[in-house]
Design goal:
The structure is a homodimer. By secondary structure, chain A is of the alpha/beta class. In chain A, about 30% of the residues lie in helices and about 20% in strands. The first copy, chain A, contains 14 helices and 13 strands. The first copy, chain A, has an 8-stranded mixed beta sheet, with helices on both faces. In chain A, strands 3, 4, 5, 6 and 7 form a 5-stranded antiparallel beta sheet that branches. In chain A, strand 5 and strand 6 form a beta hairpin. The longest helix of chain A is centred in the C-terminal third of the chain and has 19 residues. Chain A is globular and about 70 Å long.
Chain lengths: ~400, ~400
C-alpha cells in the first residue's frame, strides 16, 4: 500500500478548504558567502508571522540531489510520485500552450530546421526564426491531411511548435527525428514497439507532406518531431483525495499540469490581483486551490537576486487578503528552488510553511531556508505535503483500528 | 532488501537488554496559541535529564499526515511496516478481549441490533444495551452448534461482542452483514473469493440460529457480523531481531498486539507499580520488554489536558526505578499522538527519547515536542526505531565487509 492508496481509502469530506500557494522556484542561495538567500533577504512580515505561529519544514522535490523540471516539481506537490508519473516532452509542450489532450492522443514537439540541397541538417533551429514566422509556417502546415487523423498544430515560440495527433490506435513510443547533430539528414520516425508502428508511419507521412510545403522557405525549409507521448493515465485529485480542486494560474504550463491531475482550471487571469479575485469568487465552489505565482522562478532564472527579492515581497503583501478567506490550511512553498546564483532550477530543498489551527508549533520564527531547518515538518519528500495538508484539514480518517 | 531482511540477517545476541516504554498517544498540541503541549507542560525532571544526556527525535507513525489506530501505531514501533501488515477488525476485537487466535481461525466482530417484524433494521446498535445484557445474550448464543466448527463467543461492551470460528478451511474474505443504514434487512454474509465461500455459509448458519435464539428479545432481537479476518501471518520478533521479547501491558488490546508479533505476554497486572515489579521479576528471562502505559492516550481522548499532564508526570516519577535495572537501551515514546485539543489520535510525529551508553548526544535539552526537533535521531518512520534500538544495543552486526 502506498501513500496514494492510503489517501484514497481514508479520504473524507468535512467541507474544509486548502490553499496550495506555489511560489515557483521559491528556494534560493546566498550570492555572498554567509549572506541571506532571496527569501531571507526579502521583507516578509506576513509570511514571517505565519511561520512563527504555525509549522515549517523543507520539501525535497524528487529525491536528494535531483533537480526537477516544472512537471515533476508540481506533480510532487500534487501528491504524485514524480518518479512514477512521467510526462512526455510532447505532452508538456502541448499543455504549455493550453492544448487539451484526450487520453488516446499523441502529442509531439516540433522544430523548424534548415537542410541543404542533399537534405542534410545545416541548422537544427532554423536560425531561431521569430515567433511570427513560426506562426505563419504553422498556418501553412495546417493544409496537411492524413486519413483518419485529426491534427492540431500550434506555434510555441521561435522555431518551436506543437502537434497533437488524434485518431485510432496511436501510441507514443516513437523515436525523435532530430539526430542532435548537423551534417546528416533528419532521422525517419522509428517505432520502439509494435503498437507504435502506426504512429511512426503517420509521423513519416506528416513529415513528407511538410517537406513539400516548406521546401521553398528560407531558412525554415524542414521540420523535425520530438518527444512523442500520450498523456500519462493518472487518477484525479478528486479520486485520490476527495477534493474538488481548482487551479488559478497565469501561465498555460501550470494550467496544463493542473488539468493533468483533474483540477478544474479556472479561466486565465493576468496578475496577482486577478488571481486573488478569482480565488475569492470561486471560494465556495471548491475545496482545494492551487494558486501559482511564476515570478519567483523567472527572476531566479534571470539571475536577478534583487528582483526575486522584490517579487517575494510582492507576494508577501497579498498574504492578508488570502488569509482573510480563512482557509483551514494554507501552504506556501515552491515546486523547486531557483537560486539567482545558479540562474536555473536546483536540487536544494524548498521552504514550506503550513498554517492551520491544528499544526504543532515549532522553532521556526520567520520564513526562510535556515529557519525552516528548525521546522516541525522536518525535511521530507514533496509528495507527502498533500497528505500532510489533508491531515491538518481533517480530511483523512484514521488508518486501522 | 528491506530493513527487516537486514535485521534478520545481521542480528546477534550479546545479552543486552532493551526496554520500549510506550506512553500511548504521548504526542500533543498546545491548547493556546504558542503554549506548551501536554509533554512540555508536564514537570518531567527524570525524562528531561535523560533527554539532555542522550538522543531524541520524532517518529512518524505510518507516513506523513496519516493518523494511525493502535494496531498500525504499535506494529510500527515493533519494527513492522504498518502498510504491509494489516490487522483485520475482527482480529483486533478478539485481541482486545484477550482471546487467543490460531493462524487458521477467523475472528469477527458482532453487533446486537434491532429489526422490525419485516426483518428491517430499526437500530444498528440495539439502543446500546448495557454490557450486562450483552453478556446474557452472548451466553444464550453459546447454544449455537455448527458441524465441524468450534465457536468462541465473548461479550465486548454494550452491543458489541466477538466471535472466533475455528475449523478446517476457513478464510476471512467475507463481506460485513451490516448494511450501514436502517430501513433494510441485514445483509447475507457474502464471500469475496472462492476459498471464503465456506466461511460465508458458516456465518449464514450462525446468523440463522442466532435469529431464532434472539427473536423474542427486546431490543436486541438480531445480530450482525463484521470485520471477518484471519490473524496476519507475520514473523516473530525473535526471528527478526533475535530477542526474547516480553510484553507488560495492563490492557488486553496491547497484550494482543504483542502476541501477534510473537512476544511472551506476561500475566495481566493492574497498574504501574505492578508493571515495574513484573519488569524486575522477569528481567533475567528476556532481552526486550514492551512496557505499555495507557493513560496518556485515554486522557488525551477525553480532551483532558491537565490530566494528561498529570499522567505524564506520574510516568516520569517511575523512570528512576526503571533505569535502576540498567537497561542497555531505554526508549520512551508513543504509538501516535493524542492531543487533548483534538480528543483523538492524530498524525503529528511522536517525541522519541533513546537512552544508551552508545548514543550520540544532541541539542535537545528536555523531553518535549519542540526540543525533539533538535534531536539527533531526526524525524523518521516509526518502523525504523527498533533497528535503531538494536544498533545501540550492539545487537546488529556490520552489513557488508
Amino acid at each position: 500500500m502506498n501513500i496514494q492508496e492510503l489517501t484514497r481509502s481514508l479520504k473524507t469530506d468535512n467541507g474544509s478548504k486548502i490553499i496550495l500557494l506555489v511560489a515557483d522556484g521559491l528556494g534560493g542561495l546566498p550570492v555572498e558567502p554567509g549572506g541571506p538567500t532571496e527569501l531571507e533577504a526579502a521583507a516578509t512580515p506576513n509570511l514571517d508571522r505565519l511561520a512563527a505561529e504555525n509549522v515549517c519544514g523543507l520539501a525535497v522535490p524528487v529525491l536528494p540531489g535531483i533537480t526537477p523540471g516544472s512537471g515533476p516539481g508540481h506533480l510532487g506537490l500534487f501528491g504524485y510520485d514524480p518518479l512514477e508519473v512521467q510526462i512526455g516532452r510532447g505532452v508538456l509542450e502541448a499543455l504549455g500552450i493550453d492544448l487539451t489532450l484526450g487520453p488516446a492522443d499523441v502529442a509531439s514537439r516540433g522544430n523548424f530546421c534548415t537542410v541543404n540541397a542533399s537534405g542534410e541538417l545545416v541548422d537544427r533551429r532554423a536560425g531561431r526564426i521569430p515567433t511570427e514566422t513560426c506562426a505563419r509556417l504553422v498556418e501553412k502546415l495546417r493544409q496537411i491531411r492524413i486519413q483518419g487523423i485529426d491534427l492540431t498544430i500550434e506555434p510555441v515560440r521561435e522555431y518551436r511548435f506543437a502537434v497533437v495527433f488524434k485518431g485510432q490506435d496511436l501510441y507514443g513510443e516513437v523515436e525523435d527525428t532530430d539526430p542532435q547533430v548537423t551534417g546528416v539528414p533528419p532521422l525517419a520516425p522509428k517505432a520502439r514497439n509494435a503498437r507504435s508502428e502506426r504512429m511512426a508511419s503517420i509521423a513519416a507521412e506528416f513529415i513528407a507532406q511538410a517537406r513539400a510545403i516548406l521546401k521553398d522557405e528560407k531558412p525554415a525549409n524542414m521540420l523535425m518531431l520530438r518527444g512523442f507521448a500520450r498523456k500519462p493515465p493518472i487518477p484525479s485529485m478528486q479520486e485520490l483525495y476527495g477534493v474538488r480542486a481548482a487551479a488559478i494560474a497565469v501561465y498555460p504550463m501550470y494550467r496544463g499540469l493542473a488539468r493533468l491531475v483533474g483540477m478544474n482550471v479556472l479561466p486565465p487571469v493576468a496578475n496577482l490581483t486577478e488571481q486573488i479575485a478569482c480565488l475569492r469568487e470561486n471560494w465556495e465552489k471548491f475545496d482545494f486551490f492551487f494558486f501559482h505565482f511564476k515570478y519567483t522562478d523567472s527572476t531566479g532564472e534571470d539571475g536577478n537576486f534583487p528582483m526575486k527579492v522584490k517579487r517575494i515581497e510582492e507576494l508577501d503583501a497579498r498574504i492578508p487578503e488570502i488569509m482573510a478567506l480563512q482557509p483551514d490550511v494554507l501552504i506556501v512553498t515552491g515546486d523547486h528552488s531557483t537560486p539567482s546564483l545558479l540562474k536555473s532550477h536546483s536540487w536544494h530543498p524548498v521552504p514550506v510553511l503550513l498554517a492551520s489551527r491544528h499544526c504543532r508549533p515549532d522553532r521556526a520564527t520567520t520564513f526562510g531556508e535556515r529557519e525552516c531547518i528548525l521546522g516541525g515538518l522536518g525535511q521530507f519528500e514533496a509528495r507527502y505535503l498533500l497528505p500532510i495538508a489533508l491531515g491538518h484539514a481533517g480530511r483523512l480518517q484514521k488508518y486501522g483500528a
